[in-house]
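Entry 14. Two folds queued back to back today. First construct below, sequence then structure tokens.
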Amino acid sequence: MSKQIILLTNLGSPNSTSVKDVRRYLNEFLMDERVIDLPFIGRFLLVRGIISPFRAPKSAAKYRTIWTDEGSPLIVITNKLAKKVEKVAQRPVYFCMRYGDPTPMSVLKRIESEHPDAEEVILFPLYPHYAMSSYETAVAHVENVYNEGRFKFRLKTTAPYYNHSKYIHSLAVTIRPYLEDQQYDQVLFSYHGVPERHILKSDATGSHCLKGQDCCSVASPAHATCYRHQVFETTRLVARELGLSDDRFTLSFQSRLGRDKWLSPATSDVLTHFPEKGIKKVLVVSPAFVSDCLETLEEIHVEGRETFMEAGGKKYDTVPCLNDNDMWAQAVAELCL
């Protein structure tokens, strides 16, 4: 058997909670043409001149509320997961970030130095669903760096696993104890939002996505790269495994940026209107994130709770991400091999 190395890749994090480091991170993240898909000049003026200067101090304050003694939760969790996957897979496992450190180039060079006999590196994006601003940009970036470095080993990328039984089962197992111990009026599946234009740009057929209310349920080649279809499918499969009837769960999208039309409904709007519909006890799950980060620990756990309780909610709980739990580490190892 050829010598294989596993490389996990995640979103990334500032190096610290200082405004300077957060601004640097935001600049790199938001200047990505797959995140804000405007021409370079327009993107540069928007990010460097408006978003980053105003958002960095606010984001830095939020990062301080979730930062641990070990550092960034996302970095710490990804590192722990890599070590567990390594034990299960019995292969060397490394990790890199799309934005920030450790960079793909630095990690690929480490692999080359520490494993000169490596024949294949299996890239595993820690993104279950295909989206321009997550899976696609991470894969494209690592592949570009790989080609630039002219490494001797092969690079193989795993496909999105939004409907894979191992991922679905891992999610269901983390959610089930909450449903057994508590009574909730509704389970809210909150996914990271994307602009509708990203869905249209990712439609390989150019004629399917967002062309009708049932486009995500009508079979199409477009589904291979359709984020909307894939999050719908994840939700359906997890709900089925948990035995949730259609009236027991809701799907929404969080983390909007700008004034363009994004996928809806927005998580904040759903949480605001739940109580007036008699939904007073809510359990929130964030399946698009496999590692807890600012969007789950602060936006969902803190801001989401405030929104819901101020609107009249009585009970609000959140399910941690898969993080480094043993079943998920086993699933990652199997998905890579």
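Second construct, same run, same settings:
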Amino acid sequence: MKAIGFRRSLPITEEESFIAFDTDKPSPSGFDILVEVAAVAVNPVDFKVRQNAAKDIVLDSPKILGYDGLGTVVEVGDKVSHFEVGDEVYYAGDISRSGSNAMYQLMDERIVGKKPKTLSAAEAVALPLTGLTAWEAIFDRMKVDPKADNGKSILILAGAGGVGSIAIQIAKQIAGLTVIATASRDETERWCKSMGADHVVNHHELKTSLKQVGFKEVDYVLDCVDINGYWETLVDIVKPQGHIVTITGSEKPLNLMLLKEKSVTFSWEYMFTRSLYTTSDILKQQQILNELAGLIDQGLLKTTLNTIFNGFSVDNFKKAHRLQESGKSIGKTVIVF
């Protein structure tokens, strides 16, 4: 089968930062399904793995990236019970396995959902990784109760990014929260409002901007950009007994003692945890993806797709990674095969 990958961690401008190659088509067993891939989305995790997985070495065989994927089931393993050949599926992948940047991919059925019926392939593949991340952050980590917590406030840092775009929608439409998103450009501010944000504030002047829209403190914070850079500010603006969740890494230890006086809860959100450790609730990701699909088909949520590249080519993967690395991408970037 055709695949695109890399053997060395090179700048995206280098000719061999991505290479096309042929490899054997895999066969499913156990809980695995074999998907004929039709479209993928590119996320920051893609370029971060590309930049770091083979820094000082040359891999014996190319590493295939790709986490968001969408396609058709063409074979199933002997333990598969949720899917049949011909089903259209979408998923966020497993960071420990070969990725979706190939014609075929093996996926554990327990982290795969049925494709939303009302969306195109490009529109649907934009959603799994970011949708799962936002859903887990709000409901699994913050444990928001849509009835008991209705109307409470959430600050979403980097609201126009991939996770921020769908988090705005889930927080507003499903969790019933008052959503404040951060943005610093006219186009990102417009995007956040189109996703449903109640307020958009400038992250360069966060405390001042929050006060200008009537908030000295917020109940919840979802950081999608830089927990280190905003840490002390977030500690200051989160309410007593509030909750801070981050999806970003920390370059240095966070001073959690700053949270003690307010009894604030802090959580990491890592979407790959369930698949990486085959947790006892791994099937929850399939359930979330199916619930998201249902909410989309009901018109309660919408795609966050913003940029499409057509064609399975090295050039298109380079373009998509270059856009992600720029830090200027809005919504999601998709490649349709």
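Quick look at the second one. DSSP finds ten helices and 15 strands in the chain. The mean pLDDT is 97.
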